[in-house]
Specification:
- The chain folds into 2 domains: 6-102, Translation factors (Elongation Factor Tu (Ef-tu), domain 3, Beta Barrel); 114-243, Rossmann fold (3-Layer(aba) Sandwich), CATH 3.40.50.
- The protein contains 5 helices and 12 strands.
- It has helices spanning 82-89, 125-140, 161-170, 201-204, 219-231, and strands at 6-17, 20-27, 40-47, 50-57, 71-76, 95-102, 114-120, 145-152, 174-180, 192-194, 211-217, 239-243.
- The protein has a 6-stranded antiparallel β-sheet, covered by helices on one side.
- It is globular and about 50 Å long.
Length: 249
Amino acid sequence: MVSPRHPVILKEKRELAPNTLELTYVREDEAAISYLPGQFFSIDFRHQGEEKSRSYSAAGRVADLKNNREFRFAITAVPNGAASNYFFNANPGDRAKMSGPFGALVLPRVDPVRYLLIGTGTGVAPYRAMLPELEQRMSRNPDLRVELVMGVRNPQELIYGTEFATLAKDYPGFSFHACYSRRMPETPQAYEHDGRVNSLFEQLGVDPQRDMAYLCGNPDMVDESAAWFMERELSAKNLKREKYKFSTF
């Protein structure tokens, strides 16, 4: 079944980090935009006279998704990218078309003992969308554990990092790890690590009987990490993944 395409309007645009923006769209008819945390939408736009489409995970930290009216997502610039050219030059009031939601990178009804949420760059967007639901679940179940591992090149690219670090202070069951592949800060915080996300995996003490792992972001990271987790007996039941493909077309 083909998802209908709804006219949407750009409501807000803000910089999250150098070369990374957050855009917020609303439906032109002001209808609700419903989705499950972790899902994504496709945005259609015109580039050099041709219609293009790109998919982005919902990044909004929304407490009441039943009455939600916005689709918020993050995008990092790709050199000569059609989507980058369009969205980085878009202005509030500009129109596009949106379809969705799509995707199965969502939380199960029954929690595992621990969630491992692993992402690179804007691949943490779906995890930010999960925060309100995870907060509720941790409040109901103090034994629930959540480990969020985020990989970027340097501290300046750490989008939503302050929110994740604050949540770790508020909830004993929530842990945040920021991994820098190129440059560490001079005085790192306890949650900051040198290296790529997979350099931290051994420290997590993965247990296929109690853990559920999520992978989102750079395709190479997703493939390499999935192979690592599968070697430790995680399967399709407790290993979810979504790749972000970077296209210039």
